[in-house]
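Input.
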Amino acid sequence: MARTKSVGKSRSMVELPRGYTAINAGTSWDYKTDPVLEGTIAGFRSVTSTKYFEKIDGKKVPKEQRVCDIETSSGTRAVYESASLSALFDQKKGARVCVIFQGLKKIEGRDQPMKLFTVGVKK
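Output.
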């Protein structure tokens, strides 16, 4: 039977039963602890956000987010689309890429700073 474990104040996460191995496309890239991500694009997919919503015909609808899965020497990492990562999503599957987190930039009128990335592709 699956077990539930607490993941913070308002969320809980259900764990797989003993004997199962997770087969997700990849774990999210933690750019704060590992600012350089280098590898090969394994593919692209879309996920339905549980955090971001948009209004369509006056209704609040979960936003679709694009994800790029990058195969690295330490496993597959999922990179979520953002304005400064748009060039990454223009690449093709199999491209050798390097993504570097450059820091945060305060944007006037926004509560949260913008995350800055440099994206490179190997020729």
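The CA atoms of residues 104 and 110 lie 13 Å apart.
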